[in-house]
Task: structure prediction
Amino acid sequence: MNHLLDERKKRLSKFHELIKKRPIETTPVDIPDGVFTQCEQCNSAIYNKDLENNYDVCPYCSYHFKINAVKRLKYTLDDNTFKPLFENITSKNPLGMPEYEEKLEKGMRMSKMNEAFLAGTGNIDGQRLAIGVLDSFFMMGSMGSVVGERITRLIEYAAKNDLPLVIFSASGGARMQEGILSLMQMAKTSGALNLLDQKGLVYISVMTNPTTGGVAASFASLGDINIAERSSLIGFAGARVIKQTIGQDLPLGFQTDVFQLQKGQVDLVVLRSHMKKTLSYLLKIHSKEVRS
Amino acid sequence: MTTMDKVWERIKLARSQDRPTATKLIKTMFPDFLELHGDRLYGDDAAIIGGVATFNDIPVTIIAEEKGTDTNDKLKHNFGMPHPEGYRKALRLMKQAEKFSRPIITIIDTPGAYPGLGAEERGQAGAIAQNLKDLMVLKTPIIVVVLGEGGSGGALAIGIGDQILMFENAIYSILSPEGFASILFKDATRAKEAAHLMKLTADDLKSFGVIDDIILEGKGLNTNPETGFNNLKKSMTKHLNKLMKTPLDTLLKNRYNKFKQMGEYEESVINNEQLTD
Result:
């Protein structure tokens, strides 16, 4: 037995030497930046055109990449139907928090938006709706005074104009830099949703990657229909905090879209490629014409 | 003493072992309190105490976060960190109060909602959210009292009301100063600096319009609770009389507007296209 193992060892080391000596016959090809993207889940190199043609979903493992608010609207609404609202409401630094202005500027550069929430109206298969999208590229989609105010006004706008409401969430939670004022946005946005109940208007909440903290614990969890997009982290407390608290590892798949479905917290998990179709159907089912 | 030191002193007082917890307040101010248990769905969360009592001969519902006193008691009450079933029990009892037109008094004292496995599995986020929404339209007066620590969403979930009172040395914040420091400075030991920046004292919150009145503690609730409790009783009597005389639709409109005005932002002149739709 030992003899065989020694023999194998010898042959292996010889093989390794041969490999080392072999000259590299390939010359590296220069790939310009922005042609391929590496999948965050399966590490495959994806041709960018393929990624875009596939709703920014990995064609190999179906991982849903994070997308910005503008792209979200492109994938969701009928072409050229979006009309923005409340862009004139912008942030200040109410607590005088150091470096907040810089972070806001960086968020604007990263997201090309003036705040983390894009609100407006648009059409899905010809059905008009009020729509809002949180953008995780703007300070992690965190909710401060402006995000809270824009969401509240969008809800009020939908109620006043008899429109159904869809909000896509992508947020780490409340915005720390505005302290207690951010916390109060949870109350304000959640409370406003009663206006839609009073008018019999549907609110569909779509939780995307990630939806956590104060956003999960307010308007994002309060849809008549709660949808989780595939590949989303959804939960209240951060996984690191929970791990510290309970002092043990978290189960596989904790706080994912499927976890939330199994625990009964969302109505359905939807692929991005099916999102528009699903929303369109739900809007139709809830439209006043169909109901009456 | 610098302002930073003063803020830190407050935090120490608010969290101190000798600060009276909700049970003590209830025993003193509502001697006929009868505790009612359970959320009718999963269990009974001792981090939130609920029940009925009379206040100036008026039946009221009381919802309170209880941290516990000694080690065993603290464990029993999970250090005042509620699970979803706690918030659902609170909502159940508050809807009961609505049915019988009983005013509600909530007492906030929590480091925050419990960040644990079971809490996530049973929908901590959804439970808090549901309370925020439903309390906004609950058809009965609600008085909120911040007693010690007002820890983030875990506090806010029973913190929607018509009159928000806060003890002089209580704190109310979006996150613990330690958590805030670890985010802002990547260093939890700089909590004292963070606390100063966070603006979490009763004075700060009053200036933001997040609370309505500060309840003075005299020599301090920790050593001499009688003064503070007496002041609270006076304030509650005054506000409850007023709120109970307010027509329901006005009460609810005021409650909505009260939270609607919270937040600070710039608003430039709106263009006409957005107004007409």
In short: DSSP finds 13 helices and nine strands in chain B. Chain B touches chain A through 58 residues (CB under 8 Å). The first helix of chain B runs from residue 3 to 15.
